[in-house]
Amino acid sequence: MCEAYGHRVQKSVFEVVCRDTDKVKLVAALQGAIDPTRDSIRIYRLPANALDNVEHLGLPRHVDPRGPFVI
């Protein structure tokens, strides 16, 4: 579900750069899909320029999370 909105960076970690309206849709979809007694989802909102300060180690990123995303 999250891959429809962003990019998987680890097994259960995603980078999503989206408009507020898309965030509302994603949160609603996630709330309908999880079992709130067993599952936990955390959403960290970052400042607009936060990706300019990311340090990345290891394999290079193949997808720019700020670029266009086509499903």
Describe the structure.
- The protein is α+β, with helices and mostly antiparallel strands and 71 residues long.
- The chain has a domain of 44 residues.
- 20% of the residues lie in helices and 10% in strands.
- The chain has 1 helix and 2 strands, in the order E-E-H.
- The protein has a two-stranded antiparallel sheet with strand order 1-2.
- Strand 1 and strand 2 form a beta hairpin.
- The model has no long low-confidence stretch (mean pLDDT 84).
Secondary structure tally: strands: 2
Mean pLDDT: 84
Biggest sheet, in brief?
2 strands, antiparallel
Strand order within the widest beta sheet: 1-2
State the separation between the terminal residues, measured CA to CA: 12 Å
| Residue share in helix | 10-25%
Provide the low-confidence segments as ranges: none
Structural class by helix and strand composition: alpha+beta
User: Beta-strand percentage?
Assistant: 5-15%
Give the quaternary arrangement of the chains: single chain
Rg over alpha carbons: 13 Å
Query: Helical stretch count?
Result: 1
Give the CA-based shape: globular
SSE order in H/E notation?
EEH
Label this structure with key terms.
about 70 residues; alpha+beta; two-stranded antiparallel sheet; 1 helix; 2 strands; about 20% helix; globular
Topology:
Elements: E1 7-10, E2 13-15, H1 20-33
Brief summary:
With 71 residues, the protein is an alpha+beta fold. The chain has one helix and two strands. It has a domain at 2-45.
